[in-house]
Design a protein that fits this description.
This protein is of the alpha/beta class and about 280 residues long. The chain has one domain (about 5-280): NAD(P)-binding Rossmann-like Domain (Rossmann fold, 3-Layer(aba) Sandwich). It has helices at about 15-25, 70-85, 120-140, 165-175, 195-205, 225-235, 245-250, 260-265, 275-280; strands at about 5-10, 30-35, 50, 95-100, 110, 145-150, 150-155, 180, 190-195, 215, 220-225, 240, 255-260. The protein starts with 5 loop residues before the first strand and ends with a helix.
């Protein structure tokens, strides 16, 4: 399947990218991979890796310049990629991972048109990038596909770990430490196991029907407390409620649970794993 396709992964050393690269290498041998990032080497030692700086419009061989803002890493980097895309008259489709943080949280399911709210610079960056892609499509015909991801967890690659919610809980519990939750921990999220997420990114990215649009990535609906209690039970620790720090409370989004029916109507349901079976029972 997808024999002869070419996939360029920009930011190839990141958590999600390393898992995508692993899965394509294992399951899609006919796909040609080209990997790009700013460090000297790829952590998984792929030979088809090239060091680049996407913060330099001239594409110098030097690595990323030191940066101290999310604007450089997110927005300016994407705009530089889009500029290069245009200069090369590329017809490739850009697959862009976005975030749950663009939504205004509320009880119930959020679809792609649900109300937006931006409580962090990162959320603004991601939404800006989504709109850059739409603008470049409208003006220059750039093809894109945006996937909004809620909370990914797990890994297919040793050493490629997230700093997210699930890993925080698991790492504490494995050390025999109690798990702490701000407040009652009742806020709900869509949790997506990495293997399922990679399948969505690859299949959606390759699909001719998944183009020039935004899609929520599905998964399992859990509260933070439900997740914490599963981890605590597995490792014999306790779940403790602690007061909200002032800043954390101000940027907390509330419930963000995804309606992914739009994406599933295009590529089918690819998210079938549960937190218990994929992390706890195998951990």
């Amino acid at each position: 399947m997808y024999e002869g396709r070419k996939v360029a992964v920009i930011g190839a050393n990141s958590y999600i990218a390393r898992n995508v690269i692993h899965q394509i290498s294992e399951r899609y041998p006919g796909v040609s991979l080209m990997l790009y990032d700013y460090p000297d080497t790829h952590p998984d030692r792929f030979s088809n890796y090239k060091k680049i700086s996407i913060l330099d419009r001239k594409g110098s061989a030097n690595g990323f310049d030191d940066y101290d803002s999310f604007l450089d890493v997110n927005e300016r980097a994407l705009l530089n990629i889009l500029s290069e895309y245009r200069s090369q008259k590329s017809s490739a489709k850009i697959v862009f991972p976005s975030t749950r943080l663009v939504y205004k949280g509320r009880p119930g399911l959020l679809d792609e048109d649900s109300e937006k709210e931006f409580k962090t610079i990162y959320a603004i960056n991601k939404f800006a990038c989504e709109n850059y892609l739409k603008q470049y499509n409208n003006v220059f015909g750039v093809q894109y596909c945006i996937f909004r991801i809620c909370v990914p967890y797990g890994t297919l690659v040793s050493g490629a770990a997230s700093y997210g919610t699930a890993e925080f809980m698991l790492n504490k519990a494995k050390r025999g430490e109690d798990i702490t939750l701000y407040g009652d921990g009742k806020q709900r999220r869509t949790f997506t196991y990495m293997e399922d997420l990679v399948d969505v990114l690859v299949e959606g990215g390759m699909s001719d029907r998944c183009v020039n649009d935004v899609y929520n990535v599905g998964g399992e609906d859990l509260s933070l407390r439900e997740m914490a209690e599963m981890v605590a039970e597995r490792y014999g620790v306790e779940v403790l409620s602690v007061p909200w720090p002032e800043v954390a409370l101000k940027i907390e989004s509330g419930d963000t649970v995804f309606d992914s029916s739009k994406l599933e109507g295009v590529i089918g349901r690819l998210t079938n794993s549960t937190f218990r079976e994929m992390i706890l029972d195998k951990g």
